[in-house]
Amino acid sequence: MRALLVEDDETLRHGLATAMRAAGWQVDEAADGREGLYLAEETAPDVAVVDLGLPQMSGMELIAALRGDRRDLPVLILTARDRWQDKVAGLKAGADDYMVKPFHTEELLARLEALVRRAAGWAQPVLDFGALRFEPAAQRVELHGAPVELTSFEYRLLEYLVLRAGQVVSRAELIDRLYDQDFDRDSNTVEVFVGRLRRKLDPEGTLKPIETLRGRGYRFALTPAGGS
Question: Which of 69, 167, 194, 212 has the largest CB neighbor count within 10 A?
Answer without folding.
Answer: 194
